[in-house]
Amino acid sequence: MFQAATCHRGCSGGPHILEALAGRSYNLGAAAYTVITRGFYDEGLLLIRSIGEVANLIALSASDKQAIKEWLSSDGKTRRNKFSPSKVRKILSRPNIDHPHFDDEWYSRLSEDYTHVTPAMKPNAHDNAGQGYVGGTYQRSGLENALGELGTVLGVTSLMICAFFKFDDLFAEISTLIDVMDSDSAEI
Predict the structure, then answer these.
(1) What gap in Å lies between CA 187 and CA 112, rounded to an integer?
(2) pLDDT digit string (tens) for 88-147?
(3) Quick check: 154 and 100 in contact, CB under 8 A?
(4) Which residue stretches of the chain are H helix?
């Protein structure tokens, strides 16, 4: 993502929209990792949800050329009405679209559990049977969940970015890492 965002392997010119999306994803990922390693799991998961929104826009650009052209030329009101995160997920859930994306179930879980304020919400309640924590506190399940979600969203987003920029060497490397992680988790 860093290499795409900074034109490290050469600049293709143009408006740098995809480069900006890659840069946003990279920054969100770095910020999420930073807060997660300091025990702020809910805050990291909120940032991870934002990476999923960017990933879905990248998937939209690959799966519906007309929709992404409209998104690129739209004003703020149109983007909010036609290309909100839920509308983009709806487009990506069509049966004829087979690009990886983050669906309603994933988005809803991260929204309801870690983003939106609800009467049942407790901050950073990951380990102790509903005990919430204020401030950064190590909780094994919180760390594992947040890092797992971060790895998933960055892996998928990175693969899409590598495919777009034809970073075939990095695509192969990331794919191999994902395969290894999948086989490791299957053994647990």
Answers:
(1) 30
(2) 999 888 888 877 888 989 998 888 888 888 887 888 888 866 688 888 888 899 999 999
(3) no
(4) 2-5, 17-36, 41-63, 65-73, 76-82, 85-92, 104-110, 140-165, 168-187
Q: What is the DSSP string of 27-74?
A: HHHHHHHHHHTTT-HHHHHHHHHHHHHHHHHHHHHHH-HHHHHHHHH-
Under 8 Å CB-to-CB from 106, ≥6 apart: which residues? Answer: 52
Residue 30 has which token pair? Answer: 């770095």
**C-alpha dist (Å) from residue 134 to 88, 120, 123, 125, 167:** 34, 16, 6, 9, 42
| pLDDT at res. 186 | 46
- Domain interval for residue 132: 2-187
Rg (CA), the chain: 17
3 state SS of 83: coil
pLDDT score at 183: 62
Number of neighbouring beta carbons within 10 Å of residue 43: 21
What amino acid occupies position 35? V
DSSP 137: -
- Higher-pLDDT residue of 171 and 77 is 77
Domain count, the chain: 1
Where residue 40 falls (left for φ over 0; alpha for ψ -120 to 50; beta otherwise) is beta
